[in-house]
Specification:
This protein is 36% helix and 26% strand. It has helices at residues 46-55, 57-68, 122-152, 189-201, 210-219, 223-232; strands at 5-10, 13-20, 26-30, 35-41, 83-86, 89-97, 103-107, 111-116, 158-162, 169-172, 177-181.
Length: 242
Amino acid sequence: MSIEQEQIQIGSVEVEVIRKDIKNMHLAVYPPNGRIRLAAPLSTDFEIVRLFAISKLGWIKKHVRNFKEQRRESPRTYVSGESHYYLGRRYLLDVIERQGYNKVELNGSNKIKLYVRPGMDPRKREHVIKEWYRKQLKARIPELIAKWEERIGVEAQDWGVKQMRTKWGACNIEAKRIWLNLELAKKPLICLEYIIVHELVHLLERHHNDRFVAYMDQFMPKWRMHRDQLNELPVAHVDWEY
């Protein structure tokens, strides 16, 4: 458990230091804007932590630069010809105005058809698309959760999908409930699977410590590659991080 937060300033670089009950220091740079966090053992002298951060300055700057250069989706207005993503693939939106129920269909290999009532404003069109994303995501999650519950040896009591501004997933340890970001519907399926594994592993280990990393290495040896793939993909106009 974290007991205090500190800051290290190295020139123009600010590093957030989190004290945890861990054995080794862990340095991470988080998308979308390159927030830097260093997790350090509770008893490590601050000067040692500072020198460690300084020694990693080149690595930090490289990763911060990569995140700042990461592609961003432009704001969406939900008109025909606009690009939208589903399971990591790019589709062109085809808006069809007609009377009847609003609905979304995949057409062939490169189009998402959005059927809406005439004159519907962009915000309501966005809602129709998001609910379609939610339905598609919810259809895939149960099988993946069941697969990894068996492999990891845990059981989630509940799960849900919601729009989250700062995380790809979350886990309520006490309730054994996991939440998954609706934006994962836009990403390759393996990215969704990685986040599910990450959250289920939290049922074995609450913190992002050495034990947590060891579990991830055991159950999903290529998890770092999947994490990097998720973070390298275009992010939505509203920025996400994990």
